[in-house]
Amino acid sequence: MSRIHVTDEYFPLVYVIAADADTEAWAAAMDQIEAIYRRREPFVHLSDTSAVRSVPSPKLRKLLADRALDMRPLVKEYSLGDARVVTSNLVRGAMTAISWIYTHPAPLKHFGTLGEGIDWCVEQLEQADVRVPEKV
């Protein structure tokens, strides 16, 4: 299985490249993301899920849900936004509908392209008067 790539090279934009991966790989990625939140600095989170081709297992869905709940206070305090790149119109629509039921603790948007996600992240940083890295 693939691993999940988490980089803070562009901080305060944290970029995650998701892939079809097992629970262990996702747990390691969530540890990395939580460590970034524990810095207690504001940032935006950009997740590119365009390489994901399979539905997560029940075990993985539980892990992701549990970790999201555990990190919720940190997300609420330090996240300036969460952009998710989802190339499937159907999946993007379903994820948007879920967000009507479950309120994410930070602004959350789904995009069809990486460029759209980056643009939104830059807007979120600028609105919060947070420096946008030159590399972005």
Describe this structure in words.
The chain has 136 residues and is of the alpha/beta class. It has helices at 23-37, 58-78, 89-101, 114-127, and strands spanning 5-10, 13-17, 43-48, 79-85, 108-111. The chain has a 5-stranded mixed β-sheet with strand order 1-2-3-4-5, with helices on both faces. Helix 1 runs parallel beside helix 2 (58-78). It is globular. The mean pLDDT is 90.
Helix-strand topology string = EEHEHEHEH
Helices and strands: which structural class? alpha/beta
Distance between the termini: 29 Å
Assess the beta-strand content as a share of residues.
15-25%
Uncertain spans: none
- Share in helix: 40-55%
Largest sheet: 5 strands, mixed
Look at the structure and give the mean pLDDT.
90
Rg from Cα: 14 Å
What strand order characterises the main sheet? 1-2-3-4-5
Number of helices: 4
What is the approximate shape?
globular
Count of beta strands: 5
Tell me the layout of helices and strands.
Blueprint: E1 5-10, E2 13-17, H1 23-37, E3 43-48, H2 58-78, E4 79-85, H3 89-101, E5 108-111, H4 114-127
Parallel strand pairs: 2-3, 3-4, 4-5
Antiparallel strand pairs: 1-2
What would you say about this model in short?
The protein has 136 residues and is α/β, with parallel strands linked by helices. It has helices at 23-37, 58-78, 89-101, 114-127; strands at 5-10, 13-17, 43-48, 79-85, 108-111.
